[in-house]
TrEMBL record:
<dbReference type="InterPro" id="IPR023214">
    <property type="entry name" value="HAD_sf"/>
</dbReference>
<dbReference type="InterPro" id="IPR010033">
    <property type="entry name" value="HAD_SF_ppase_IIIC"/>
</dbReference>
<protein>
    <submittedName>
        <fullName>Magnesium-dependent phosphatase-1</fullName>
    </submittedName>
</protein>
<dbReference type="InterPro" id="IPR010036">
    <property type="entry name" value="MDP_1_eu_arc"/>
</dbReference>
<dbReference type="Pfam" id="PF12689">
    <property type="entry name" value="Acid_PPase"/>
</dbReference>
<dbReference type="InterPro" id="IPR036412">
    <property type="entry name" value="HAD-like_sf"/>
</dbReference>
<dbReference type="GO" id="GO:0003993">
    <property type="term" value="F:acid phosphatase activity"/>
</dbReference>
<dbReference type="GO" id="GO:0030946">
    <property type="term" value="F:protein tyrosine phosphatase activity, metal-dependent"/>
</dbReference>
Length: 177
């Protein structure tokens, strides 16, 4: 472990953060597993989680961090199916998420809804949430004291380096308070 601590909750955008596509425009059902960590669609488009995502989610679970998915997808059923077919270890990825928030609109709405559902409103107000997301427009979550962690490379998605750097930034900002 680096020079960081863990927040109460980590929020993941899905498209181009945990997997390399937009599930509402790049994926055509039916979907089928070709292995525990790979899925193919009707046009043989192959999909897997980005390389470091499984170990990051496993680490968060081992450290009792609540995991939330927040996606603007117009096809939540496809996103749910992908999370059900893609595995982390022996379990479907969807089993690692404590809350999944879908639909159009701001990530502020997704995060506040998840915080309410999980009775974490005080933790959110206390700055105990981090959002990993590939879209800079979602930096507006900082207005609700959620740390914004930018995932800039759609080829690599969320990497171990970004994860550790952002946890370190979040930890350092907490120490200054």
């Amino acid at each position: 472990m680096g020079g960081y601590t863990y927040p109460k909750a980590v929020v993941f955008d899905l498209d181009y953060t945990v997997w390399p596509c937009w599930c509402d425009t790049h994926i055509t059902p039916p979907l089928r597993s070709t292995s525990k960590n790979r899925v193919t669609d009707a046009y043989k488009f192959n999909l897997a989680l980005y390389e470091d995502v499984s170990s990051i989610i496993t680490e968060l679970v081992q450290n009792d961090v609540i995991i939330i998915g927040a996606s603007r997808t117009a096809t939540p059923r496809i996103a749910q199916e992908l999370l059900s077919l893609l595995h982390i270890g022996d379990k479907p990825a969807i089993k690692y998420f404590d809350s999944l928030q879908w639909g159009q609109g701001s990530k502020i709405k997704h995060i506040t809804k998840a915080a309410k559902q999980l009775q974490l409103e005080d933790d959110l107000k206390d700055g105990q949430f981090i959002l990993f997301d590939d879209e800079m427009r979602n930096r507006d979550v900082e207005s609700i004291r959620c740390h914004f962690a930018y995932v800039p490379d759609e080829e690599r998605g969320l990497t171990r380096q970004i994860f550790e750097e952002e946890l370190t930034k979040w930890t350092n900002s907490r120490r200054k308070q």
